[in-house]
């Protein structure tokens, strides 16, 4: 029944989107040209959203992440940063530098929690290994060199930002609002790693 409900909701969403597209098609070209001219003169500020997720759950989870990213980009007007779309930039800049820059620049950091994310993040904690190592070359650890474990490093860095925000004298409310933990309906609140307990949900 849950699957049928989800399918029904998706059908309703498709009908809604179809109506939106037909209304957009009915706009006159004069009106479209006018709004395009306004937008080019004063572009709408697009919030930058970084999505952190586990790429070790399954291919369906990765598909959901991509759909979520497209939704944020196409319907919410966000500038979405997703590792799947940034291979060239990551190779050019180096994974750790790229990740640090994205976490600093993003207006909103969304960590999509799942069983795989919690398992791999907490497995590293149980072993007592720090994701960001103390080796040379800017502190890149073996994990930093593996694209598959980049999300473990990202979660550790996000957790540190949460800790610092909580300890800041002004309460760090603005920083806390920037760091969000979410999960889809096939996951539960228990899939949020302990290190992200301070994050808004």
TrEMBL record:
State the membrane topology: Single-pass type I membrane protein
Give the gene symbol: IL17RD
- Which UniProt keywords are listed? Glycoprotein, Membrane, Receptor, Signal, Transmembrane, Transmembrane helix
UniProt protein name: Interleukin-17 receptor D
Q: Which cellular compartments is it found in?
A: Membrane
Q: What is its main location?
A: membrane
* A Pfam family the protein falls into: SEFIR
Species name for this entry? Answer: Xenoophorus captivus
Residues of the SEFIR domain = 46-201
Question: Mind telling me which InterPro entries this protein's record contains?
Answer: IL-17_rcpt-like, SEFIR_dom
**Matching Gene3D superfamilies:** 3.40.50.11530
């Amino acid at each position: 029944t849950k699957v049928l409900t989800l399918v029904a909701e998706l059908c309703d969403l498709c009908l809604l989107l179809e109506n939106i597209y037909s209304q957009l098609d009915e706009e006159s070209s004069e009106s479209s040209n006018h709004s395009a001219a306004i937008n080019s003169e004063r572009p709408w500020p697009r919030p930058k959203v970084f999505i952190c997720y586990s790429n070790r759950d399954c291919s369906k989870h990765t598909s959901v992440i991509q759909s979520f990213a497209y939704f944020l980009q196409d319907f919410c007007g966000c500038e979405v940063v997703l590792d799947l779309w940034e291979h060239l930039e990551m190779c050019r800049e180096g994974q750790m530098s790229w990740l640090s820059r994205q976490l600093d620049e993003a207006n909103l950091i969304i960590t999509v929690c799942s069983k795989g994310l919690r398992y791999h993040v907490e497995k590293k904690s149980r072993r007592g290994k720090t994701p960001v190592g103390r080796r040379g070359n800017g502190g890149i650890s073996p994990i930093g060199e593996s694209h598959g474990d980049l999300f473990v490093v990202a979660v550790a860095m996000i957790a540190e930002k949460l800790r610092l925000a909580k300890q800041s004298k002004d309460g760090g409310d603005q920083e806390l609002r920037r760091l969000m933990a979410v999960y889809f309906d096939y996951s539960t609140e228990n899939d949020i790693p302990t290190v992200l307990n301070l994050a808004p949900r």
